Each structure stands twice: as C-alpha cells, then as structure tokens.
Amino acid sequence: MSIRHGLLALLSKGPRYGYQLRVEFEASTGATWPLNIGQVYTTLSRMERDGLVAPGGEDDQGRALYAITEAGRQEVERWFSTPVAPADRPRDELAIKVAMAVAARDVDLRAVIHAQRTATMRSLQELTRAKRAATDGLAERLVLDSMIFKAEAEQRWLDHCEAVLKEKHS
C-alpha cells in the first residue's frame, strides 16, 4: 500500500488536515505503519500537483483542509478494485536468509531457525497483547489479525524447515 492511496481513502470520508490524516492513518493500520508528518504533507503536495486532492478551505481553528477530487476518487476506486499481486509485495527477507544460510559455509542453520522462531514467538505474543488492548475498532483489529496470521504462518514454515533439515540428516 502506498501512503498516497491510504490518504486518499481517508479523504474519501471528507476534508481533513494533515495531522488529522496522520493520526487516522496510524489508527487505521493499528499503529503498525507510523508516518512522519513531513511524509503526509509531501504526499499531499504531490497529490495536489497530480490533481487528486485540492485545497478544501480551513477548519474552525484555521488549519488548511484537503479534499479529494473526482480524479482522486477514481484513483482510490481503482486501487480498491485491483488485487494486490505477489510481485507488489516486498521480498521475503526470511526465506532469502534461510536459503543463504543453506548455501553458505559455516552457518548453523538450526541456530538461524531457532533465533527466528524466538523472535517470531515474541512478536506473536506482542501482537496478541495489542489485539486484546485494541480500542480503535474494526480496521485496527483486521490489521492486527493479519499480522498474527502471518506470524503463525511463519512459525509453521520454520517448523517445516526444521523437519526438512532433520529428514536430510537422518
């Protein structure tokens, strides 16, 4: 997901000012993607240049509001209707690390797997605690659920790696 599309999605609910967009973006993603306020304003400037947003006046405290344009609505609709392709996702750093550990000399693959398992379990526990404490609603819960499911899948894959390693050395 790009910051641009996330901000457009939030602006589709109505005009917002920069800091408000930052807070809503972070709340919607369960604070898993913190934004620098500079990123927000830089992105808004680019979207204004590209005709996706326009100045939307000021709120009662004088903060500049941004509003989505028709071109912005079309862009966010296109984004929502287009599935995320595997090529659009970042590379799987863990799979590459394990593959390189297999290929490298003098690397204890069991130790690499054990270290990752420990870190993944810690992350899973933190995510579960965060889910129990979540109060921001459905968006936050769904993001945390996704992260929990990915951590669980990673644990299963690490189990598989260990099983294959044992099989190879039996």
State the oligomer: single chain
Question: What's the total helix number?
Answer: 7
Give the SSE order as H and E letters: HHHEEHHHH
Low-confidence stretches: none
Termini, distance in Å? 44 Å
Polypeptide structure, described:
With 170 residues, this protein is mainly alpha-helical. The model has no long low-confidence stretch (mean pLDDT 91). Helices cover 66% and strands 6% of the residues. A hairpin with a 5-residue loop joins strand 1 (53-58) and strand 2. The protein has a two-stranded antiparallel ribbon. The protein is elongated, with a radius of gyration of 21 Å. It has helices spanning 3-11, 18-28, 37-49, 70-81, 93-103, 109-133, 138-168, and strands at residues 53-58, 64-68. InterPro entries: Tscrpt_reg_PadR_C, Tscrpt_reg_PadR_N, WH-like_DNA-bd_sf, WH_DNA-bd_sf. It comes from Nonomuraea indica. Residues 7-77 form the Transcription regulator PadR N-terminal domain.
Could you name the key traits of this structure?
170 residues, mainly alpha, 7 helices, two-stranded antiparallel ribbon, WH-like_DNA-bd_sf, Tscrpt_reg_PadR_C
